[in-house]
Design brief:
Immunoglobulin-like, five-stranded mixed β-sheet, 27 strands, 9% helix, rod-shaped
């Protein structure tokens, strides 16, 4: 008797296992009524940008009565986008502006679309994560590789490279007078960007400029120029150390420093001219007393000084 009971128990277990296996396999073969989901990954409802709303797009295999909600990471409904509306076969597209049913902006965090199909008797939580982020990235530090450069295209200090560090992964942005000049292609937390000292294709005039480094994250939040880190640089093509050289005794030699990154430069004084590559230009003063103009030049840029020559 006991043997028959054991045999019956084993047979019952085998039958149950076979049925469970068949049901499981059947579920595996059943196609989901929702496919080809396309959901925006990031969202910032406070930015005036393309990521101020998240697009939720999916393909229905059959028409149905649809309820679409956005839920938080605890699966609590935050916003009901549509309730019991007819959804046709193929593509269906909806948007979420990052706000709750009460109209307030949802808290920063992860959210997911949830679909209920009345006719199919299915509720499907899409795995597509929407990251809501309203906080602008912070620029922690920014420093140029050189304080002085000359964007004249001669291959000598034509650009600056600004090394930066951000509080999160974001694209760095370079501003001048509130205008965006450079935006990095990638979004690391630290990196560098190069600028060739040009605005509208034209090199900047000599002078000191205050640049600012800002950042834009994937959600579209921007720190902007006003909240960026200031970087002060100077554009210098060629520059004399003094712009009034006096008094100089007639027919004697005198020197003046020349600041430039050019390999060589030209000079002119009282009808005489020459070229030099020395940082200290040494020339002979005219034999006659008077006021003269010393000009130095490189690649179309020049600087000048007044030379006062007196008698011996």
């Amino acid at each position: 008797m006991q043997r028959l009971l054991s045999t019956g128990l084993v047979f019952g277990l085998l039958v149950s296992t076979a049925v469970a296996f068949a049901v499981t396999e059947n579920l595996k073969l059943t196609q989901s009524p929702v496919t080809r989901t396309q959901v925006e990954k990031t969202l910032s409802p406070l930015c005036s940008c393309r990521t101020s709303a998240a697009t939720i797009k999916f393909w229905l295999r059959h028409p149905d009565t649809l309820t679409l909600s956005v839920v938080d990471s605890d699966r609590h409904e935050v916003k009901r986008l549509v309730d019991g509306v007819y959804a046709h076969r193929r593509w269906n597209t909806f948007t979420w502006n990052g706000r709750t049913d009460a109209g307030s902006v949802a808290r920063d965090g992860a959210y997911y679309p949830r679909i209920h199909l009345a006719q199919a008797h299915r509720t499907i939580l899409l795995p597509n994560r929407i990251e809501l982020d309203t906080e602008a990235p912070k620029v922690i530090d920014a420093k140029p590789n050189r304080a002085v450069f000359s964007p004249d295209g001669d291959g000598q200090s034509d650009s600056i490279k600004i090394h930066y560090k951000l509080g999160e992964r974001a694209r760095a942005v370079l501003y001048l007078d509130g205008r965006q000049l450079v935006r990095t292609r990638f979004a690391p937390r630290s990196g560098s960007l190069a600028w060739y000292g040009r605005v509208n294709g034209m090199p900047l005039a000599p002078g000191t400029y205050k640049l600012r480094i800002g950042a834009v994250d994937a959600a579209g939040n921007a720190s902007g120029a006003q909240n960026g880190v200031a970087v002060v640089v100077r554009v210098r093509y060629i520059e004399l150390g003094r712009h009034r050289i006096a008094p100089i005794t007639a027919a004697t030699r005198f020197g003046v420093r020349v600041g430039t990154d050019a390999k060589s430069y030209g000079w002119r004084l009282a009808g005489k001219s020459g070229r030099s590559s020395a940082p200290l230009l040494v020339v002979r003063a005219p034999a006659s007393a008077g006021r003269y103009r010393l000009v130095v030049e490189e690649n179309g840029h020049r600087d000048a000084a007044t030379v006062i020559v007196v008698h011996r």
